[in-house]
Design goal:
The protein is of the alpha+beta class. The protein folds into two domains: about 120 residues, Alpha-Beta Plaits (2-Layer Sandwich), CATH 3.30.70; about 40 residues. Helices cover about 60% and strands about 15% of the residues. The protein is elongated, with a radius of gyration of 41 Å. GO terms for molecular function: large ribosomal subunit rRNA binding; structural constituent of ribosome.
């Protein structure tokens, strides 16, 4: 590979290391071209999977700020740069490896940290983004239900109190209106007495 081509390849790998959500390094020895194509199709558009020269990948990784990847860059290497859901892509690779044992995970890079083969395989045990979002939504729904119940409790108590008062008022109107009527009777009596006094005064003056 000519020097300009190597520089371009390193720049491209550096970009992928810097921008991907995770990178999974594999040994692909024994896989046919058709099988590797099948793996790419299963991984989908959010993950690129291609053979990489170890020396160029090592340079690109270091330029991207990734240290300690030399052990994984031994022997034939193909790298899956995951730009979508890490769990989904990792599960896809694990399923493929069960059918094609020649695909061997050598390690991974997650958030700039290098992972050995065992840790890299555990990425497939992560829950997918959809599952996490569903759980988050479920948790939020439960929290909202609790909040609504908390706010509704005083209102329901008030509603029950009003209902009880209405029932009591039907049985005994004085509960609500009685006091008003009691106040009105003395006032009416006073008005009547005042009217009688005025009439008496008028008669006396005549």
């Amino acid at each position: 590979m000519a020097r300009p081509d190597k520089a371009a390849a390193v720049a491209e790998l550096k970009k992928k290391f810097s921008n991907c959500a995770a990178a999974v390094l594999t040994d692909y020895r024994g896989l046919t071209v058709a099988e590797m194509k099948d793996l790419r199709q299963q991984l989908g558009a959010d993950t690129s999977y291609a053979v990489a020269k170890n020396t160029l990948a090592a340079i690109a990784a270091k330029e991207a700020g990734i240290e300690g990847l030399d052990d994984q860059l031994a022997g034939p290497t193909a790298i899956a740069f995951i730009n979508g859901d890490i769990a989904v892509a990792s599960k896809t690779m694990r399923s493929f490896a069960k059918e094609q044992p020649l695909l061997i995970v050598k390690g991974a890079v997650l958030e700039g940290k290098v992972m050995d083969a065992d840790m890299a395989k555990k990425l497939a045990d992560l829950e997918s983004r959809e599952v996490l979002l569903a759980k988050l939504a479920g948790g939020m729904k439960a929290s909202m239900s609790k909040a609504v119940a908390t706010f509704a409790a005083p209102l329901s108590k008030a509603a029950r109190l009003v209902g009880a008062l209405e029932t009591k008022a039907k049985e005994d109107p004085s509960v609500i209106g009685g006091a008003g009527e009691a106040d009105q009777k003395p006032q009416a009596q006073e008005a009547k007495e005042e009217s009688t006094d005025v009439a008496a005064d008028s008669a006396a003056s005549e």
